[in-house]
Amino acid sequence: MLPELKRLVDLQELDKIIQEVTQSLARLPEELAAENAALAEMQTESEARAQELENLKKQKLETEKEVAEMEEGIKSSRQRLMEIKSNIEYKAMLKEIAFKEDQRDQKETRVLELLELMEAQNQGIAEQTQRLQEQRELVDRHGGEVKTQVTKLKAELAGLEKQRKELRKGVPAPLLKRYEFIRQRRNGTAISPVHEGVCFGCHMNILPQQFIDLQKGVEIIQCPHCQRILYWQEVEALEEGLSRSAT
Ligand SMILES: [Zn+2]
Predict the structure, then answer these.
(1) DSSP class of residue 194?
(2) What number is the average pLDDT over the span 138-158?
(3) Overall average pLDDT of the 193-214 stretch
(4) Who surrounds ion ligand 1 at CB < 5 A?
């Protein structure tokens, strides 16, 4: 194989690793941001629940006050009942008292309902607080991990970039330019092995004469279908290379 071709194969492998590291560097903070957004949402929900509980408490206090007022009304009606002499008035007053008692009972039922609602709300808040705490811990823990990971990846990337710079020095500028041009258009793969006359980049047959020239290893040959720069590898070496990239 032409030495510059060998360097291009190495460069491509390196470029792929650099791409992966770069993607991880971009993805990690995004993951963290999503977790933080979930935490903020849970906090908002918690505040809404607390507000809802406050409303229930207020309603309960108001209703209890109403019950007390009604109780007073019933008491004074009963007192007046003692002073009534007319039978008709007496019956009318009894009816009025019964009506007031019925209304008071309804309010008392409402107080019990409110108590149940408050209990359910308290239960919900306790569960929500637990989830919130867990999410907070997750964000804290993952935040630290991401920070460490980012530092590590950045150092790794710096080392890879240095290696890349060195490798590029060994490839003639026009070939490097061609490599970059194809790489951008072919999803990061600009150089591809050929096996039994088939380009591994696009799985199409190259021209028989091209295959012969390729095996001679004296010139740069591009696939007539996908334009990738081609290199010829013995079957064993190729299989080893493919299984390595598959794991
Ligand atoms: Zn091809």
Answers:
(1) E
(2) 96
(3) 94
(4) 199, 201-202, 223, 225-226
Indicate whether 134 pLDDT > 80: yes
- Cα(175) to centroid(ligand 1), Å: 17
Residue 138, pLDDT > 70, answer yes
How far does the centroid of ligand 1 lie from the alpha carbon of residue 211, in Å?
12
Task: Find the 22 Cα to ligand 1 centroid distance in Å.
Answer: 27
Structural domains of the chain in order of their starting residue, each with its CATH number: 13-168 (1.10.287.1490), 173-246 (no CATH)
Task: Please give the Cα distance from 220 to 8 (Å, whole number).
Answer: 11
Cβ neighbours for 59, distance < 8 A, ≥ 6 positions apart: 114
Q: Residue 146 corresponds to which tokens in the numbers above?
A: 């991401």
| Distance (Å) from CA 199 to ligand 1 centroid | 5
CA of 122 to the centre of ligand 1 (A): 66
Q: Is the pLDDT of residue 240 over 90?
A: no
- Residue 35 CA to ligand 1 center (angstroms) comes to 43
Question: Which pTM does this prediction carry?
Answer: 0.71
Which of 144, 118, 137, 160 is closest to 22 using CA atoms? 160
Question: For residue 93, what pLDDT is reported?
Answer: 94
**pLDDT at position 179:** 97
The DSSP call for residue 167 is H
